[in-house]
């Protein structure tokens, strides 16, 4: 039975690696997946899912207003689909999370969404908020803070390693802009740098 899954974590925990491993596993069994990623994440090119360990795969980029149920149905007409994999799921809109639930409920295709739960100010992203509410299964991908505790927060840092406490919710970046922290280090502004 198809389900909507949400795999979440703080930054740099291996979400894209886990997604690409799932894609590989389906492919090894002769099953086709459909990969989606946020258009606005263009660090490695638009429509590229790339892990920090160096593996990557082409994907279909989605924008905020795209109807993902229609996108998946169109892809399904071209080829059989065994699974939809969504990277950067925090950038989904509420409506798109609902559309992915319809992919599961109406099309019978499992959807595995991977994303971060909160932004650098500890506020939920829209996509993550509704995936936490509507997913059939939720799984945390764990990583650690520099102090050794489980990291649950995402700190945006400047070039000197100091935390930024203002700015736009979305700023694309990697290790040069974000560090994963436990709650205690986050609120004490101890970035470990």
How would you describe this structure to a colleague?
This protein is of the alpha/beta class and 193 residues long. It has a single domain (4-142), classed as P-loop containing nucleotide triphosphate hydrolases (Rossmann fold), CATH 3.40.50. It has 5 helices and 10 strands. It has a 6-stranded parallel sheet with strand order 5-2-6-7-1-8, sandwiched between helices. A two-stranded antiparallel ribbon has the order 3-4. Helix 2 packs parallel to helix 3 and helix 3 (94-107) runs parallel beside helix 4 (126-134). It starts with a strand and ends in a 6-residue tail after the last helix.
Task: Give a brief rundown of this model.
The chain is of the alpha/beta class and 193 residues long. It has one domain (4-142): P-loop containing nucleotide triphosphate hydrolases (Rossmann fold, 3-Layer(aba) Sandwich), CATH 3.40.50.
Keyword list:
193 residues, alpha/beta, Rossmann fold, six-stranded parallel β-sheet, two-stranded antiparallel ribbon, 5 helices, 10 strands, 27% helix
CATH top level is: Alpha Beta
CATH fold naming: Rossmann fold
Work out the strand percent: 15-25%
Q: Based on the structure, what is the oligomeric state of the protein chains?
A: single chain
Structural class: alpha/beta
Please outline the helices and strands:
Layout: E1 4-9, H1 15-28, E2 33-38, E3 48-50, E4 56-58, E5 60-62, H2 68-78, E6 83-86, H3 94-107, E7 111-116, H4 126-134, E8 137-140, E9 153-156, E10 178-181, H5 183-187
Parallel strand pairs: 1-7, 1-8, 2-5, 2-6, 6-7
Antiparallel strand pairs: 3-4, 9-10
Helix pairs in contact: 2-3, 3-4
């Amino acid at each position: 039975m198809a389900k909507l899954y949400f795999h979440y974590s703080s930054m740099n925990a291996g979400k894209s690696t886990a997604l690409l491993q799932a894609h590989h596993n389906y492919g090894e069994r002769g099953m086709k997946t459909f990969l989606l990623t946020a258009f606005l994440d263009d660090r490695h090119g638009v429509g590229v899912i790339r892990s920090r360990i160096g593996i990557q795969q082409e994907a279909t980029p989605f924008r905020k207003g795209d109807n993902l149920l229609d996108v998946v149905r169109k892809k399904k007409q071209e080829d059989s689909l065994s699974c939809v994999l969504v990277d950067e799921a925090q950038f989904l809109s509420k409506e798109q999370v609902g559309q992915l639930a319809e992919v599961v409920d109406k099309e019978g295709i499992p959807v595995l969404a991977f994303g971060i739960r909160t932004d650098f100010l500890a506020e939920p992203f829209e996509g993550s908020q509704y995936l936490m509410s509507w997913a059939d299964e939720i799984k945390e991908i764990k990583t650690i803070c520099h102090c050794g505790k489980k990291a649950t927060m995402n700190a945006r840092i400047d070039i000197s390693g100091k935390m930024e406490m203002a700015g736009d919710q979305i700023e694309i970046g990697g290790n040069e802009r974000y560090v994963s922290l436990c709650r205690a280090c986050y609120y004490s502004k101890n970035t470990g740098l």
